[in-house]
Recover the amino acids of this structure.
């Protein structure tokens, strides 16, 4: 289906191209953070993950390692955002006419696949611990979790300090607070093991944390894959969109309709629009403008490529309102 991805060009031969979509990249709210701050956040999270994995192995705690996986998720997301932001600064060229905005999605697929594999491993490990409990150093679990809480709160502070009203950054800040909460839960679990010798708490917490990671990862994996597969954006009904466009004055019908996402923030559309045979240049301009306005306001589609044609001088598929895949 790659043949429909052509760069915008001046309006010629009845084609109209929507501009103004730009080449901005979705970066999980990191565009207002300077590179140095983002690097520090990455270093803190990567360092914490390594510390937790080693400490969890030493303490014999799978829940600490599950929490390490949780923090690895954040570190990987920040690394992907950082690298993708660097890549996305490159302008569109003849090889990549839509720019490099999908670099982050490719990185996300790799990250999420790895997370799912490790998450499944931790769940199997936790289940095994229920049947064959192992000795766990509860004091070490508490110490490791305390360090994790401090680092999570420190990362949250770094993000908050740079937010300045940015909603995405505030969301990232809240996400780090949930990381701190997860570490607090592991800390309490360590206390239960240390004081009450409740070793079953460790695999139970592991199942909860790993289950949450798998749930989030599978959902994000499906979303990323759908964008890369050029699926119709969530909430866009092609039949309803076709009817809305056809309701515009002097629009007879719509076919060869494609709607896809360039990334999480940018949508694009391509369609053939059938109009009356006797249409002036001014009427064609008005029809095109009305369609583009509708697409932008109702469907958040800023980039659209419209081919205006008549029933007598069309592409031969005028009887088909929508032909996905053509």
């Amino acid at each position: 289906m790659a043949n429909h991805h052509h760069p915008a060009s001046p309006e010629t031969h009845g084609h109209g191209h929507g501009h103004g979509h730009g080449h901005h990249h979705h970066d999980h709210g990191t565009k207002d953070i300077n590179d140095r701050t983002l690097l520090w956040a990455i270093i803190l999270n990567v360092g914490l993950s390594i510390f937790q994995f080693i400490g969890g192995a030493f303490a014999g705690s799978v829940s600490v390692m599950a929490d390490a996986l949780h923090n690895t998720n954040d570190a990987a997301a920040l690394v992907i955002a950082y690298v993708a932001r660097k890549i996305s600064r490159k302008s569109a060229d003849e090889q990549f006419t839509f720019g490099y905005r999908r670099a982050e999605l490719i990185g996300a697929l790799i990250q999420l696949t790895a997370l799912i594999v490790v998450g499944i491993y931790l769940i199997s490990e936790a289940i095994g611990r229920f049947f064959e409990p192992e000795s766990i150093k509860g004091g070490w679990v508490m110490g490791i979790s305390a360090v994790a809480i401090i680092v999570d709160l420190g990362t949250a502070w770094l993000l908050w300090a740079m937010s300045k009203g940015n909603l995405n950054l505030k969301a990232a800040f809240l996400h780090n607070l949930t990381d701190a909460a997860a570490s607090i839960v592991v800390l309490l679990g360590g206390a239960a093991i240390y004081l009450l010798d409740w070793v079953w708490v460790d695999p139970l917490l592991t199942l909860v944390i790993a289950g949450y990671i798998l749930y989030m990862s599978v959902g994000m994996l499906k979303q990323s894959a759908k964008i890369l597969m050029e699926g119709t954006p969530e909430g866009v009904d092609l039949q309803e969109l076709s009817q809305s466009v056809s309701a515009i004055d002097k629009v007879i019908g719509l076919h060869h309709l494609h709607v896809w996402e360039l990334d999480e923030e940018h949508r694009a559309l391509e369609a053939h629009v059938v109009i009356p045979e006797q249409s002036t240049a001014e009427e064609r301009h008005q029809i095109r403008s009305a369609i583009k306005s509708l697409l932008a306001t109702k469907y958040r589609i800023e980039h659209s490529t419209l081919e205006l044609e008549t029933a007598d001088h069309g592409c031969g598929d005028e009887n088909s309102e929508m032909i996905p895949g053509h």
In short: Residues 1-28, 320-326 have pLDDT under 50 and may be disordered. The chain is about 60% helix and 10% strand. Strands lie at 15-17, 253-261, 267-274, 303-309. Helices lie at 35-59, 62-88, 103-131, 138-163, 167-196, 201-228, 238-246, 281-299.
